Amino acid sequence: MRKQRVISATSVTAVALLTLGACGTETGSGKGAEPEGSAVRNDLPVTGVSWTVEGLSVAGKKAAVLSGAVLEIGKDGQASLRTGCNGFGTKVSVSGDTLTVGPKSSTMMSCSEQLDDFERDLGKAFSGKLKAEMTDGEKGLTLKGADGDAIALTSEPSAALTGKWTVNTLGGDPKAGVTLPEGTDGKAFITFGEDGTAHGSLGCNSFRTTAKTAAADGADGADGADGSTVTFGRVTSTRKLCPGPEMAVERRMQKVLSGKVTYKLNEQGLSLTAADGTSLSARPGSRA
After folding, report:
1. How many angstroms separate the Cα of 146 from the Cα of each of 124, 128, 129, 218?
2. What is the DSSP letter of 66?
3. 64 vs 47: CA distance, rounded Å
4. Predicted confidence (pLDDT) per residue in 197-244, tens digit
5. Residues 6 or more apart from 190 whose CB is under 8 A from it?
């Protein structure tokens, strides 16, 4: 009887081991089966979102990022990249956590040296096969190339405005707007902070205020679309006496920085338009 019990126990153990082995080696295509080591089972939700560039690393070094650079990838794979000067178009395919960027076409406008450098670095980083990683509860996106180049992006509504904008025309369209009075170029600027504040120069006097952004209705969170608004709070400023040309710019700035105004971002930069039609445009500067 003792020998029979030993044989029975051994048989049960063998059957259990065989069963476990079968479970561990089964490669059927039933529900729940995933390739070994697979971390991403579906395409990442990167399409249909307006992504603002907030960080850039090229050749192992942090590169300067200018305000207003936005990447949008349509559900059909058509992608556009706007820098504040030139616009780029390409086709992007998404497979799991990998984006493959096709050949790019672009406008050929002459930009500032700073913008030229930024566009060159951004174009290099946004090419070929890129590994994508969602961050900040899918509000953030990081794209990394095999050579270590990386782009950090965010879908936060106010992010595209963050940084410095230098006024270049007294009109919403840089091509049709009134040019600045002689001697005032580069003197008026607005810097939007990540904390909902804005400060800068009215052309002579410095100012500070609050700035609350809102995306256009039905724009699916896209920032800078037609109808997007920014509401400025009470503006405080210094009280220096300034020459006539600078005061002309200052008066225009004061009208625009008043209450709720519409804004638009495109290849030419930023335009702000007040309720009475007073407007100005600005070219992008550093986000730092």
Report:
1. 12, 9, 7, 37
2. B
3. 26
4. 999 999 999 999 999 988 765 444 345 556 789 999 999 999 998 888
5. 164, 165, 167, 198, 199, 200, 257, 282
Partner residues linked to 135 by β-bridges = 140
Rg (CA), the chain: 27
CATH code for the structural domain at 50-154: 2.40.128.270
> How would CATH label the architecture of 159-284?
Beta Barrel (2.40)
The domain ranges of the chain are 50-154, 159-284
Percentage of the chain modeled with pLDDT above 90:
42
pLDDT tens-digit readout, 85-123: 888 999 999 999 999 999 999 988 877 788 889 999 999
Q: What is the mean pLDDT of residues 158-168?
A: 84
Say if CB 65 and CB 55 are below 8 A apart: yes
Full-model pTM: 0.59
Q: What is the pLDDT of residue 219?
A: 46
119 neighbors 126 (Cβ within 8 angstroms): no
- Is the per-residue pLDDT at 36 higher than 80? no
CA angle (48 as vertex; 43, 51 as ends), nearest 5:
95
**3 state SS of 36:** coil
Task: State the pLDDT at residue 267.
Answer: 67
Q: What are phi and psi of 120, to 5 degrees?
A: -65, -45
Q: How far apart are CA 131 and CA 153, in angstroms?
A: 13
CATH fold match for the domains 50-154 and 159-284 = yes
- Residue 271 near residue 281 (C-beta atoms within 8 A): yes
Residues 6+ apart with CB under 8 A from 153: 51, 52, 53, 54, 71, 140, 141, 142, 143
